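Re: that backbone. Tokens:
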């Protein structure tokens, strides 16, 4: 069983963390490695995650998981949101495991490069909060309100192999934004291509008729790392209810590397046993 805790949120299904946990489980012998493909499941708060790990010469070279159903409702597309200091911004809202505000970076004059990280985070958090205030959403099957995260995306392009590709930058909260306190207009970036964000954007592209079932989608992060997403089939989310929506079942493939083996301890005399925060990036 797994649970991912970020700086300001608990994630009920984090794709990139699941890739890492799958690699760890296989490397540590917690799951017997079978070449060329090992299949198993990890338990997360959002339910069981089915894993397929491609293994070669005793190493994990690719991990693919099937994520929860993603969707983008027609009424959540092409929204016009009024954002302080920015004016009106066109956004879409899509679900890929979290409720994403999706924004074309060019619409707000942003280039998705690492040196623009601070401005990307600031503007992204402002747009997300404004969207949540003006266009709140919820999941059709259970009480999960949003939007709670944002993804800037570049223009999509066709690769020589025919796959669709794009670049993104995902903005997460690191505090509670207050419009009367500009010092709180901050956020933080996901350095990965973001798995649930990839699923949400694939659902949006499918709703626009730009990404077909079975077609690969190469999604690149702000630092150049990549996930390969694919829509496996169309589904109905909340079937049999008045809130049912058409969605898609996505998979995401990627890699992970073990970078550290650590032991965390807590001394009973430590004055900060639960940690601390200061007003820097948090």
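Recovered sequence:
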């Amino acid at each position: 069983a797994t649970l991912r805790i970020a700086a300001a949120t608990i994630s009920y299904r984090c794709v990139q963390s699941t890739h890492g946990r799958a690699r760890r489980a296989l490397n540590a012998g917690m799951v017997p490695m079978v070449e060329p493909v090992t299949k198993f499941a990890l338990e997360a708060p959002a339910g069981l995650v089915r894993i397929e790990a491609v293994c070669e010469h005793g190493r994990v070279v690719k991990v693919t998981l099937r994520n929860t159903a993603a969707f983008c409702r027609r009424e959540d597309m092409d929204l016009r949101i009024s954002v302080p200091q920015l004016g009106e911004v066109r956004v879409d809202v899509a679900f890929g495991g979290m409720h994403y505000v999706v924004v074309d970076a060019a619409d707000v004059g942003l280039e998705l490069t690492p040196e623009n990280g601070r401005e990307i985070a600031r503007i992204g958090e402002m747009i997300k909060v404004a969207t949540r205030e003006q266009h709140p959403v919820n999941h059709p099957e259970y009480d999960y309100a949003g939007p709670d995260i944002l993804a800037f995306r570049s223009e999509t392009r066709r690769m020589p192999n025919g796959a669709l590709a794009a670049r993104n930058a995902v903005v997460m909260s690191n505090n509670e934004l207050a419009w009367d306190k500009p010092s709180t207009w901050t956020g933080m970036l996901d350095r990965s291509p973001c798995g649930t964000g990839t699923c949400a954007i694939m659902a949006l592209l499918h709703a626009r008729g730009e990404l077909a079932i079975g077609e690969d989608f190469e999604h690149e992060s702000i630092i150049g790392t990549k996930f390969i997403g694919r829509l496996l089939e169309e589904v109905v989310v909340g079937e049999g209810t008045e809130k049912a929506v058409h969605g898609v079942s996505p998979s995401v493939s990627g890699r992970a590397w073990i970078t550290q083996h650590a032991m965390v301890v807590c001394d009973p005399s430590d004055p900060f046993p639960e940690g601390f925060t200061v007003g820097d990036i948090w």
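The CA atoms of residues 211 and 274 lie 45 Å apart. The two ends are 28 Å apart (CA to CA).
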